[in-house]
C-alpha cells in the first residue's frame, strides 16, 4: 500500500451490544422481576475480566407501545447502576426496530468522533409476544435495521417465550441458524427468563473475549429451557 | 475468570509504553500459570547478526491471555541459508484447540522451507505442518543482502517496512477498517488463500513481520503506535527493548503480539548501492501492483473453525 492511503485517525476497538427488551404488560410479574435481579449480575460478570470489560459497550432498549433507551450505550465499568424496568402497554416491534436503527447510527457517529472503532453491533431481542403492529410496519422497520447497504446493521439474536411466534422470531434474526430461540413447550417464563439472562451474560462475555482469539464472533447463549428455531430451506 | 489479584500485587508502574488511550487491563498484574516453562514464556526475545543482516524477534502474550493464566499462541522462526534469510510469524487461532502448537510448527516449517525454495514454498510447508492439529495464520519473508524481499502469507499476520522518520508501508493489502470482525484465513486449508508480495528495503529501512495483535493497533494508531514503533525499530533496539516496545498499553488491544525485525546495514552503505538506489518510502509501488492480482488466490469459504459473522 502507499503511504498516502494510511489513515490519520486514531481508532480504539469496542464491541457494542444492545439488549432490546419487551416490557409490554404481559411481561409484568416474574419475567420483569427476573430482569431487574439479573441486570446487576451482568455488570458484575463483565467486570470480572478487565480485558473484556474494556471492549464491551452495552445499551438497554425497552419497548412496548413505544421504545426508549433505558441505558444509553455505556462502558459498564463506569455505570453506577442499571435502571429498573417496569411493564406496560402493547408489543410494538416496529417501535423497537425504528429506535434501534436510530440509536445505533447515532452511537456509532458519536463513538467514531471519539475514536471508537466498532465491531459489528449485536442486538439481543427478547419478547414474550407477537408484534401488535401491522405486519407491513414492523417488517418495514426490520428491513431498515437489517439493510445490507447500511454498514452498521447489527447481528440479531432473537429469543421468545410465552406467546412469541417462532416464525416471527426467525424473521427478526434474519433466518440464520442458531440466531433465533424459543422456550420449550410448557416452560414457565419465571424459569426461562433467569436462565436466558444468565446465558446472555456468558454470551456477551464470550463474544467479547473472542475478539482476542483470532476472530470476533457472536457466541449464542446456552439456555437449557430454550431451543434453536430451525431455519427453513428454500426449494 | 477467578477473582482479581489483590491490588498490592499489581505493578506500581507500567514497564511498557502507552500509546493513545491506555488500557486499564494492561495495568493489571498477570495471573501466574499453574505450570510454565521457557518455551511457553509470555515474553520471549532474541536477536543477533550475521555477516550481512541483523535480526530481532520478540513476542508478548496478550493481556487477555495473561489475565486468564494461559500461554500465548503466537510464534516466530527464522533460518539463514546461502545468502538469504527467511523469517516467519504465525498466529494460532485461539478458538481451535492446539493453536499454539500449530503456530509453532507452521512458523518453523515456513522459515525452513522458504530459506531453501522461496516464500510460497514456505507457506505450503506451513500448511502441511499445521495439519497436525490446531489452526494458524502465517507470514513468511525471504530477504537477500541486496535488500530484496519476497513475502507470502495466509491470514492476517503481515509484513511492514519501517523507515527513517517514523514512515512505514505495508506489503500486503490491509484489512477493511469497516470490517473489523472479518474472519481471517488460516491454515491448514485444502486451498489456502495465499497472498504474495515483493519489496525492496532502502537505506535505513527495516522489515517487520507482525501478528495482527501488533499490526492492528499499528494501523489504528497512525499518530501514536505507528510512528513510535516505526521510529524505534529503525534504530535496531536490543531484543529486550523490542519486547518492551511490542508490549505497549493501548485501550482494547489485548491480543498476542509478535514482531520479527530484519536490518541490512549494508544496503545503501556500499555493499550493493545499485540495489538500493532511488528507493524511498514514497515512491515504492504498492505490493499488489508488483505481484499482480493473478497471483492472489481468493474466494474460498472461511475455514469452519473461524466461522464468525458478517
Descriptive account of the structure:
- The complex is a heterodimer of chains A (235) and B (310).
- Chain A is an alpha/beta fold.
- Chain A has a single domain, classed as 3-Layer(aba) Sandwich (Rossmann fold), CATH 3.40.50.
- Chain A has helices at residues 30-47, 50-55, 93-113, 135-145, 166-172, 189-209, and strands spanning 12-22, 56-63, 67-74, 116-118, 122-127, 155-160, 180-183, 226-228.
- In chain A, helix 1 (30-47) packs parallel to helix 6 and helix 3 packs parallel to helix 4.
- The N and C termini of chain A lie far apart (45 Å).
- Chain B is an alpha+beta fold and 310 residues long.
- Chain B contains 8 helices and 11 strands.
- The longest helix of chain B is centred in the middle third of the chain and has 19 residues, at 99-117.
- The interface between A and B is large, with 38 and 61 residues.
Describe the structure concisely for a colleague:
The complex is a heterodimer of chains A (235) and B (310). Chain A is an alpha/beta fold and 235 residues long.
Characteristics of this structure?
heterodimer, A: 235 residues, Rossmann fold, 8-stranded mixed β-sheet, globular, disordered N terminus, B: 310 residues, alpha+beta, Phosphatase 2c, domain 1, 23% helix, disordered C terminus
